[in-house]
Amino acid sequence: MNFPQELKYTKDHEWVKIEGDIATIGITEFAQKELGDIVYVEVETVGETIEAGEVFGSVEAVKTVSDLFMPITGEIIEFNEELDSSPELVNDSPYESGWMIKVKISDSSALDLLDSAEYAELVGA
Questions:
Q1: How far apart are CA 93 and CA 95, in angstroms?
Q2: DSSP characters for 57-97?
């Protein structure tokens, strides 16, 4: 499995790419494989400030629905609208075209995230 070193990870299987005060967030390759074929991604929190650990949306796969947990505190400024018509991008390219949201980070001191080696150990990869 692929866990890019430039990303940070959560125990809830989200990844975070930080560029200045903007974070791009999606789910990991491990998470999308566990979920199976993704058929819908719902994020109705654009424009809202969400605290780390709170639910910001959900992802629906053929066999289950799973909540998406905010890895950092910040305002959701963008949703990947390509996922509306092509949710399978999360399966095909979880770290590139399958990203889910962009967040303006409001509290960078709360970034309690795993590096790729720690995440790989967490999932037994």
A1: 6
A2: EEEEESS-EEEEE-SS-EEEEEE-THHHH-TTHHHH-TTTT
Given a contact cutoff of 8 angstroms between Cβ atoms, the answer to whether 102 and 19 are in contact is no
- CB-count burial class (<10 Å; 0-12, 13-18, 19+) for 89: buried
82: which residues sit within 8 A by CB, 6+ positions away? 89, 97
Tens-digit pLDDT profile for residues 16-33: 999 999 999 999 999 999
Q: What is the pLDDT of residues 72-121, one digit of tens each?
A: 999 999 999 999 999 999 999 999 999 999 999 987 665 679 999 999 99
Euclidean distance between CA atoms 105 and 25, whole angstroms: 12
* Spatial distance between the Cα atoms of 34 and 40, rounded to a whole number of angstroms: 15
Q: Residue 41's Cα: distance from chain center in Å?
A: 11
**pTM for the whole thing?**
0.94
